[in-house]
Amino acid sequence: MADYDVIVIGGGPGGYVCGIRCAQLGLKTACVEGRETLGGTCLNVGCIPSKAMLHASELYHESTTHFETMGLMGNAPSVDLSKMVEYKQSTVESNTSGIEFLFKKNKVDWIKGWGKVTGEGQVTVGDDVHKAKNIVIATGSEPSTLPGVEIDEETVVSSTGALVLKEIPKKLAVIGAGVIGLELGSVYARLGSEVTVIEFLDHITPGMDAEVSKNFQRLLKKQGLNFILNSAVQSVETADGGAKVTYKSRKDDSESTLDADIVLVATGRKPYTKGLGLEDAGVTVTDRGMVEIDAMWRTNVPHIYAIGDVVKGPMLAHKAEDEGMAVAETIAGKHGHVNYNVIPGVIYTAPEVANVGKTEEQLKEEGRKYTVGKFPFMGNARAKAHFMGDGFVKMLADAETDRILGVHIIGPGAGDIIHEICVAMEFGAAAEDIARTCHAHPTFSEAVREAALACGDGAIHA
Ligand code: NAI
To answer: Catalytic: 441?
Structure first.
């Protein structure tokens, strides 16, 4: 007799959402989580704490730049980093305890401890053995580092250590110009650090629409971030509370060094499947640690599913959540579905950057014929009033059918306004559908409509 219909291993956004949806669909469900709190990397040491730090540092920066212009006189506030970290932590706690409440409300059992698959339909946590008809692996990912670079979370930190620094570093070196490097680099640049980002490629944010990426880099430079591109970090040595980063130019192989008080390693993450017993259970795991699944998130072992950062696709909390819900529906005999063509990506810098669908480079590579509609936030009244005229909306639509293929936004509220496009794309909308939809004035969203108008007879305010 099984104790549960479903045991989910991992209580992050993939796992906890899966657990709640399973219970809502009438399945007896438990979630195994070894951390002291639920919510995984995202709520504890990732998305949520970083957003608290981004918010606080953005307001601080705003107070030192635009307050007087707006007639808000007086001394700019000073920064108390330990207080800021306390605020960040209280945000984390209110969110993680919220998940615990949701588990109780939905009758999902939280089995505290680290789970291991120890037989067919069997999960062992400490000395306890639990039986389940279905097992869902949702164990997430961990920072991956480089050879020659050891993360000690004191001087050489991952995003986890960067969120609990004791002092604002005078010099911060960031390895990797991806999402983590740029978000956390922005936080410390705003708080006064001299930030230098070293990136392997000749551009920042790999995979992003090139035009947006270039503009993004220009805006970050204006905010004081330095970039060393086309350079591979070779090693990091620590001494006397500081660090020396050695990197090699990919153009001429010359080696250079950079001194820093803190080094943030932001070179990607890798699936976390250590100690799970997957190999012994016969589950196929690739040599990069990724669990192989079919189109229904099933592994090669019947009744073991996997979702989120341990499987293919972007390592994003919302992608994991969608997979969590879809797997719950599949197990409950319904039709779980995730549309991987419409998964938005957001970078929470100022301005924010958001995208969904294809980039212009992808369309060119596919040989598609497309129209481009662009609209700058300088033409958006609300953005101008908020000193947020930097950036633009770029819409890519099929040249023949006008169907929206991708939208890329750099500008105020980008991470929120992208969702009208996600909905539109789910409904197979054309650019004209957005262009003919009345948008409230004055809002940032009007820039999206103007970009849609620009795909047709032209934008009004550009
Ligand atoms: P990333 O994959 O976004 O970026 C890593 C960067 O490091 C790349 O640009 C790569 O070229 C560079 N790199 C690799 N080796 C290097 C070397 N030897 N020297 C210099 N540069 C090197 O990874 P990141 O930023 O660590 O983020 C990890 C994951 O977490 C990503 O999948 C990301 O999507 C996710 N995440 C998402 C957030 C969001 O949605 N806002 C926030 C934070 C993380």
So the answer is: yes
Atom number of ligand 1 nearest to Cα 315: 32
Residue 222 included in any domain: yes
* Residues 430, 362 share a domain: yes
Q: Are residues 253 and 286 in the same domain?
A: no
H or E segment to which residue 409 belongs? strand 404-411
The CATH number for 448's domain is: 3.30.390.30
Q: What is the DSSP string of 79-129?
A: P-HHHHHHHHHHHHHHHHHHHHHHHHHHT-EEEES-EEEEETTEEEETTEE
Domain coverage including residue 444: 343-454
Say if ligand 1 is within 6 A of residue 179 CB: yes
pLDDT tens digits for range 185-215: 999 999 999 999 999 999 999 999 999 999 9
> What local confidence, expressed as pLDDT, does residue 204 receive?
98
Do 440 and 371 touch, CB atoms closer than 8 A? no
Q: Give the confidence band of 390 by pLDDT, cuts at 50, 70, 90.
A: very high
| Residues 457/450, Cβ–Cβ less than 8 Å | no
* Domain presence at residue 461: no
Say which CATH number the domain at 262 has: 3.50.50.60
Residue for token digits 């009345």?
438
Give the mean pLDDT of 74-101.
96
Q: Which atom of ligand 1 is nearest to the CA of 180?
A: 25
Q: In total, how many domains does the chain have?
A: 3
pTM: 0.97
For residue 28, is it within any domain?
yes
Distance from Cα 449 to the centre of ligand 1, integer Å: 31
pLDDT at 50: 97
* Distance from residue 266's CA to the centre of ligand 1 (Å): 5
* Residue 1 reports pLDDT greater than 90: no
34 CA distance to ligand 1 middle (Å): 26
| Cβ 453 vs Cβ 442: under 8 Å | no
